[in-house]
Amino acid sequence: MTERTLVLAKPDAVARGLVGEIIRRIEAKGLTIVALDLRTATEEVAAGHYAEHDSKPFYGSLIEFITSGPLVAAVVEGPRAIAAWRQLAGGTDPVDKATPGTIRGDFALETQNNLVHGSDSPESAAREIALWFPGLEG
Ligand code: CMP
Question: I need a labelling partner for 35 at 20 to 30 A (CA). Which of 71, 74, 77, 100 fits?
Fold first, then answer.
């Protein structure tokens, strides 16, 4: 089933020059980029995006990090795009969970600065795409 998912290449990915590598892996997998934008997230978008984490101890630091500089937001489409992108990204903890061959497994060390984000369900994808790309047509 064709799905869409939200992809973020977070500020650490932009700062480290890994955006090209991340996009290359998305395209090599066969997924299609339907929207792509370099921007610095506002506090409002960051808070909306991470609303489910607002009671976590790392929330303040996470908002500071995600708004700290330019990131790349994208919408990616394809068969089972949500799971496919999460497979490419690897587990949230880049050392304990992400395996070599994944983006986090190959390039990240810290759980917060883990380079990329992907929606975790169709409901999250719809919410996150509407938040980051409100004008995007279905
Ligand atoms: P992401 O997939 O964008 O979803 C939530 C983000 O919170 C996660 O990636 C990390 O950047 C961050 N995060 C999750 N767990 C922790 C943690 N234990 N400590 C710090 N940051 C975390």
Answer: 100
Strand order in the sheet with 32-39: 32-39, 71-79, 2-9, 116-118
Alpha-carbon span 56 to 10, nearest angstrom? 19
Q: Residue 135 C-alpha to ligand 1 middle, in angstroms?
A: 27
Assigned CATH class of 2-132: alpha beta
ipTM for this prediction? 0.96
Active site residue 53: no
Q: Which residues line ligand 1 (CB under 6 A)?
A: 53, 58, 62, 92, 111-112, 114, 117
Is residue 114 a known part of a binding site?
A: yes
pTM of the model: 0.97
